[in-house]
């Protein structure tokens, strides 16, 4: 770490000494014994500007207090059928670990429909997975690999990406804003696999809008990305949709749902759901667990994120228009035969 960065962290630490006890408490829940590393993440996200990073962290702590994020892991989504429906339509899971011990998070971008529950359930579930990653997954990886592990790898499967994904752009922008503002710099690399033409067209337009720091983290791989990913992880940690060429992110892989890290039957989701139910009994002893989603305040979308969302929308619109032209030409051909 350079002297400038060390100096910035010192300044940041002294500013944090002046925050109230409640904020100090939630900050402690957040940093898990690594306050300097956490401040470093917020500084990195604000290009090492101490005042901006301090404001960002204070806003994050206020968001955590107002929305009781410290207790979100004790609020299960019930009944289990509803949680299964959330899992079947918000495809995300932990497929394993990289050779360096970083958790590998798999996301089925193209086949997630987000249409089986209200938006609040999807946001709640996303935050719960973030908190479980920070409270349970990363500390366990740190212990297992004998070095501090605070970031993960994400493999984004674009199989099945369609123009109808536009319907979810608002929810996805909300989720990515929550991550940007409250869980900054937690992803080391984003690997994009099984990218159809529609993704490539959007990527061309979106790439120039991304910050250099973000751009460096994104790698678009050929096909299912298996060979490239095997350089950083073992076969057993590959997400099911990267196992063989043209495999795609089908919800049921060849070995059934146990091998499919999106499924509620996968070990990761079983452990996560059991953990939340266990925490809820500790908190709510003697009281029935409440049904209903946790309502989390959605942050205002960052202007940069809003611009990216707008660009994706307009690119999708162009593709839809082109599609429309192709379809009407096809109709003419059919009718003219």
TrEMBL record:
InterPro entries: CRAL-TRIO_dom, CRAL-TRIO_dom_sf, CRAL/TRIO_N_dom, CRAL/TRIO_N_dom_sf. PROSITE patterns: CRAL_TRIO. It comes from the Eukaryota. Residues 79-239 form the CRAL-TRIO domain. This is CRAL-TRIO domain-containing protein.
């Amino acid at each position: 770490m350079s002297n400038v960065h060390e100096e910035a962290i010192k300044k940041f630490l002294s500013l944090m000494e002046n925050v109230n006890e409640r904020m100090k408490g939630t900050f402690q829940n957040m940093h898990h014994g690594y306050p300097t590393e956490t401040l470093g993440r917020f500084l990195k996200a604000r290009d090492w500007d101490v005042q901006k990073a301090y404001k960002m962290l204070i806003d994050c702590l206020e968001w955590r207090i107002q929305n009781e994020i410290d207790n979100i892991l004790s609020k299960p989504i019930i009944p289990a059928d509803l949680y299964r429906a959330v899992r079947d339509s918000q495809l995300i899971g932990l497929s394993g670990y990289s050779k360096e011990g970083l958790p590998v998070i798999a996301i089925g971008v193209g086949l997630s429909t987000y249409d089986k529950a209200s938006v609040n359930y999807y946001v709640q579930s996303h935050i719960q997975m973030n908190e479980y990653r920070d409270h349970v997954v990363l500390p366990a990886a740190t212990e297992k690999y004998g070095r501090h592990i605070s970031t993960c790898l994400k493999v984004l499967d674009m199989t099945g990406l369609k123009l109808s994904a536009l319907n979810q752009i608002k929810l996805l922008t909300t989720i990515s804003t929550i991550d940007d503002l409250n869980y900054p710099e937690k992803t080391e690399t984003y690997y994009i696999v099984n990218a159809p033409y529609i993704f490539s067209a959007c990527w061309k337009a979106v790439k120039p809008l991304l910050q250099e720091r973000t751009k460096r983290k994104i790698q678009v791989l050929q096909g299912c990305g298996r060979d490239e990913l095997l350089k950083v992880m073992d076969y057993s940690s590959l997400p099911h949709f990267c196992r063989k060429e043209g495999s795609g992110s089908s919800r049921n892989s060849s070995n059934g749902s146990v091998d499919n890290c999106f499924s509620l039957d996968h070990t990761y989701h079983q452990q996560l759901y059991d953990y939340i139910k266990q925490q809820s009994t500790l908190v709510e002893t003697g009281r029935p667990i409440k049904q209903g989603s946790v309502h989390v305040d959605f942050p205002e979308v960052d202007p940069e994120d809003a611009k990216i969302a707008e660009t994706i929308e307009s690119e999708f619109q162009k593709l839809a228009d082109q599609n429309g032209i192709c379809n009407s030409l096809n109709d003419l051909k059919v009718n003219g035969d």
